[in-house]
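To illustrate the input format used throughout this study, we show a single complete record. The first block contains the structure-token representation of the backbone; no residue identities are included at this stage. The design step must infer an amino acid for every position from geometry alone.
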């Protein structure tokens, strides 16, 4: 690769897109953010993705750089081998051949990836898991999803749906989950679930951040709700460790911003649940909300080596 080579990277979420020009060594040369406006429907969103990517490639050329590939990370079920966004609740995609559409429009080799797996890939290679070979990245936000990364490669699964740790059953008969089953981890311990649980008990609206702050201030109800979520997360992570036997679990997403308030009790609860399994190191993500975009860049670079 030449020193002027860059990849165009996009991390598409339900509300916004994080975009960057990234050098092969991981250095970020330029960033942009654009609204997704998912309510306009999938065709309009695809048009915006392609227009933004084209704009970034044009910006690179205007700056004397050479765009060599495009990486796009999107939420939902992604068939990475075929480059198809199979299904996404928050962006509305149903079987969108996004990779082929982008290649046709930009004339660049394109990689399509899953947003959480892309974020996990970046954390494992460049972030909090960079010294370890076996990493589980768990993003806790509106929902809960994970990426299992081994030797810098993300496990995708036979159907593009590996890592759905938010839907392991931790509380049979518990709160109903968006997937239709009661008691999933995500229905108990996601940021959304924590806010809803507190609001239902206290009778006032609250976010997970509110609950964290009130728990830290010693409010008993908030402390109870927080503890319930931590216990459920520990159950979920213990299942993850039984399956994957990783060295490090990296916690990302909005809830991880609670820092020690989450990590300290979660570490203790996970420790209690370990029998013969080796306890993983539990750390906060290091790359913040740029992880997905960096991961999209890594996917684009990897696709060039194949
Ligand atoms: Zn579920």
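Output of the design step:
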């Amino acid at each position: 690769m030449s020193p002027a080579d860059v990849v165009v990277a996009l991390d598409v979420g339900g509300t916004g897109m994080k975009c960057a020009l990234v050098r092969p060594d991981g250095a970020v040369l330029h960033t942009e953010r654009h609204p997704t406006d998912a309510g306009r429907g999938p065709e309009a969103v695809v048009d915006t993705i392609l227009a933004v990517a084209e704009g970034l490639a044009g910006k690179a050329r205007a700056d004397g750089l050479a765009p060599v590939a495009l990486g796009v990370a999107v939420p939902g079920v992604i068939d990475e081998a075929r480059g198809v966004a199979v299904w996404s609740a928050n962006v509305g995609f149903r079987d969108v051949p996004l990779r082929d559409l982008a290649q046709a429009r930009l004339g660049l080799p394109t990689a399509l990836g899953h947003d959480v797996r892309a974020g996990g890939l970046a954390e494992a290679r460049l972030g909090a898991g960079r010294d370890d070979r076996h990493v589980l990245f768990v993003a806790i936000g509106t929902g809960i999803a994970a990426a299992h990364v081994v030797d810098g490669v993300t496990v995708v699964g036979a159907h593009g749906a590996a890592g759905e740790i938010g839907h392991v059953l931790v509380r049979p008969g518990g709160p109903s989950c968006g997937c239709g089953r009661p008691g999933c981890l995500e229905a108990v311990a996601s940021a959304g679930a924590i806010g809803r649980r507190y609001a239902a008990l206290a009778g006032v609206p609250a976010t997970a951040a509110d609950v964290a702050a009130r728990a830290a201030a010693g409010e008993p109800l908030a402390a109870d709700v927080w503890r319930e979520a931590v216990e459920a997360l520990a159950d979920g992570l213990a299942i993850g460790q039984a399956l994957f036997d990783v060295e490090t679990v990296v916690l990302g997403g909005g809830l991880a911003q609670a820092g020690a308030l989450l990590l300290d009790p979660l570490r203790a609860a996970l420790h209690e649940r370990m029998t013969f399994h080796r306890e993983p190191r539990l750390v906060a993500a290091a790359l913040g909300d740029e992880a997905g975009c960096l991961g999209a860049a890594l996917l684009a670079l990897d696709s060039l080596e194949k």
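Structural context for interpreting the output: DSSP finds nine helices and 13 strands in the chain. The two ends are 14 Å apart (CA to CA).
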